[in-house]
Amino acid sequence: MSDNAYDTLLERGFIAQSTDADSLRKMLSERSVTFYIGFDSTATSLHAGSLVPIMAMMQLQRAGHTPIALVGGGTTMVGDPTGRTEMRQMLSEAEIRANGARIHAQFDRYLHFDEGKALALDNADWLLPLNYIAFLRQIGVHFSVNRMLAAEAYKQRLERGLSFIEFNYQLLQAYDYLTLYREHGCTLQMGGDDQWGNILAGVDLIRRAEGATVQAMTFPLLTTASGAKMGKTAAGAVWLDADLLSPYEFYQYWINCDDRDVGRFLKLFTFLPLDEIDRLATLQGAEIRQAKRILACEATHITHGKAAAQGAEAAAGAAFGKGGGAEGMPTTAISPERLAEGINLTTIMADVGLTRSRGDARRTIQQGGAYVNDQRIADVSYVVSEADLTPEGILLRAGKKRYHRLVVG
């Protein structure tokens, strides 16, 4: 077990706030700590913005501590009002359960539950059977409505309207921490910095209900150097599920990051030694591409495995004319008959997701950003046909970064 797990997180940029830095540092250096992070089951997959907490869990697990990956099968049925201007869409219990199962399967790739060094739990197991009156008497009595209304998450929503069901969210999240403390000896909760108020409510509940002191830590809410939200692009979310976003596209997200983000991302999203990261972060000009390639390879390896990372790197080399195969590049099969008839370029670019719509494809062509087999296409009426077919298929490109291959099949 590392004797400076707290300092490792601090040096790599994971820590925004903590309850007691000295106590946390001591706790994480002297004994094995069970800690948890909760993830509501609002979608079938996590995205790249979730990698900050995931990587923090992996860092602490490597230092000998035990992570609990908690999916919110119960809290998702209520909906967290934090950072929302209106109430979240209500999902059915079946949808929430299915989402939670898929999210836990994703976590297994990072934390390896079968090795006995991490726990996969669902708060539906203790929240759904709750007796409402008993819960209010045992847990609600410890909460001040005045203090809750002063929380930033609730203050923002009061102007637009806060439903009673959402008002209960903080109590349920705090009860999660109390339950995990009682049943698993969990003494540290971590989460995004926007969760600080909810997490502190759990710390306070354990103090009042059990007379015990536990800790809390939050991560910074990341934006890229350009101001974009981490894990989001113009084309949509950077999903961790390979069925929603291919390893090649995941690799491209990292290799195309802003030069100003490279050093910070290497610290957060890889396990490279800090002295090596410091060296890579000093590269300038064309050499910064080397640092981005290492970032993309390491991040893709962690999420999708070594083979997928190597395939994505080879596909990127092929797309940029550096040789190698095109295996791993996003690919769509089209019928010989459809290709023989010819397909308008605006149609196929929209169909395969290179652009959001045919109108977007038309604008891309007019602005000089559309390519077929590395040849710029300026004619919005251009028809992709058998004449464009090469042994590797037909390579489409939108702008400098987005590629897609057509094959006949």
Distance between the termini: 53 Å
- List how many beta strands DSSP finds: 15
Estimate what percentage of residues fall within beta strands.
5-15%
Strand order of the largest sheet: 1-6-5-2-3-4
Task: Examine the coordinates and then state which fold CATH places here, giving the name of the CATH topology of the largest domain.
Answer: Rossmann fold
Report what the structure shows.
This protein is an alpha/beta fold and 409 residues long. The chain folds into 3 domains: 5-219, Rossmann fold (3-Layer(aba) Sandwich), CATH 3.40.50; 246-319, Tyrosyl-Transfer RNA Synthetase (Orthogonal Bundle); 331-408, Structural Genomics Hypothetical 15.5 Kd Protein In mrcA-pckA Intergenic Region, Chain A (Roll). It has 19 helices and 15 strands. It has helices at residues 5-12, 21-30, 51-62, 93-111, 124-127, 132-138, 145-149, 152-158, 164-167, 169-184, 196-210, 247-255, 262-269, 274-281, 288-304, 306-319, 336-341, 345-351, 358-366; strands spanning 17-18, 34-40, 66-72, 119-122, 186-192, 215-219, 232-233, 236-237, 331-334, 343-344, 370-372, 375-376, 383-384, 394-398, 402-408. The protein has a 6-stranded mixed sheet, sandwiched between helices. A 5-stranded mixed sheet has the order 9-15-14-11-12. It has a two-stranded antiparallel ribbon with strand order 7-8. Strand 3 (66-72), helix 4 (93-111) and strand 4 (119-122) form a beta-alpha-beta unit. The model has no long low-confidence stretch (mean pLDDT 88).
